[in-house]
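User: I've been going back and forth on whether these two constructs are worth ordering. Before I decide, could you fold them both?

Assistant: Sure. I'll take them in the order you sent them. The first construct and its structure tokens:
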Amino acid sequence: MTQENPSSSRNRQLGGRSPRPGCPLLIIVCSRIVWAQGFTAPRPEDSPISSSPSLLLACGGWRRWPSPGEIGRSTKDAKQFSETLAATMAGSAAAVEQHIQALLAQSVQEGLLDDQFLQLIQLQDDSNPDFVSEVVELYFEDSATKIDTLEARLREPAPNYGQVDALVHQFKGSSASFGAHTMAGLCVQLRDACHAHNQPACQALVAQLRESFAVLKARLEQFMALENQRKQLGGGR
């Protein structure tokens, strides 16, 4: 009885279709290649596995696993890349810090801020990294509310200057503590106008307060954007 070729039998099971020659499916068991999908197994001595255990048969050809030396070089390259990236980020953080210092110096020179705000910045550290941003947001909210209230009270036919003066006194204190130099100075002038019961002067000074606050807010938003960028780059304060 003539033994049927395994590949012929397998081809009949596949409906006469031969497996794609470009993508053989071979099974590797204990460093030996056995027959699958109609392919005759190569002899063990012909297998690259016999001479190179780092080779693995993949679809369409042999794929080589990296050698220990290559893995070592890859690890070294990854370490060098990490060190280069860290150095680049540190340099970027230093550049952002220079922008921050230039912005603060300009703000102090223009009178928007003073040394009190610079001292507030020094209170921020790793244990309280969001201290400055929280103080800035609180000042924004408090100032906007006070300006709206002052405008409303000074629109009345007969303003209660005692109440207005008390509110302006609070505003001056919060602005001075924050380091908003121009805002605090305008509050001093507004208190003098309140004491004189000079309604037009009071209204004009509140309008100046609103304009100055808008300028200060825009400047501090620039500062906070740079601060967030510095933190993302790993810069410390």
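The second construct, handled the same way:
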Amino acid sequence: MAITPESALAVCTLCLLLPSGLFLHRLLFELVYNCGPPPSGWSRASLAFAAAAWLSLAANYGMEVWSQHLALTERRHADSPLFIARVGVRVSSYAALMQAIIFGNLLLATSIWMVKASFMCLYFQFPRAALTRGLRTTLYIASAGVAASYVGVIIPYFTACRPFSEAWSVARSAAGTNCNPTDFIANPRWLYVHTALNTASDAVVIGLPLVIITRSLTLTRYDRTAFAFVLMLGVLTVAVTVARAALLMRVTSWTPETIVTSQVLAFAEGSMALCCVCLPAVRAAVKGRSDERRRRGEVEGGRKRGARKLWERVGERGVDV
């Protein structure tokens, strides 16, 4: 399932544009066009986490563009004695490529976990009647678990190499003691831990609203459809996580194509996660428009009924000229 650098850039660009449009809609809806009650503290916190997720995803896109640019420009030097075939660049560009990969992975993980934090803040906005004391306590415990899983995923990146700058050291790589995360994240034990933490936190984020809604809330048909769509997209995001882990588990030696494919799958995962947290604002906007049209229809209907009754009374009594 190898992907060329050119197609990888196209896929990553599309994966950035779609959530960017949805995030801009949510930003404008909640801060500018919201005609309802003012946003609560949890709503503003959720929006702030979504903004952090988008910024991390955009920064990761910059890293992707830089790494793919290196891969494209370094092709012509494949016959050079200083060319490192396993990563597809020369020695002079090795550090830059590894920095792009390492910090891109860190930014992507941050983006995904910021989306999860944004969802957790949204759950605290459920009506008080739905959030019983037990459910609210469960939300606090789950939030702490999601935060702990983020720490568990991030810390190994900084502890795999000591000092951290050794992660992109050409000399250390040539000596056969390479500790950079492209080798580290392909370690089966790390993959199991990373995938377990990611999927477990995803399961918590996806499962909590199911518990709250089935126990305490009654949704309309349109709300159920919207919720099912977001849930399906969340499950698809988890499927991409598992697919990327399966790809890395099969890697015996890193090649430029393998690196590109892994990066694209990871970027698609972050993109779909950000879409999930922005889609509820679309449903809220559609519902607000529908309610506004209904209110206008009721007002117009009331005016027409009042005018009709007035003319009926005039007709009964007659008009003095």
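Notes on the second construct follow. Residues 256-317 form the longest helix (62 residues). The CA atoms of residues 52 and 114 lie 7 Å apart.
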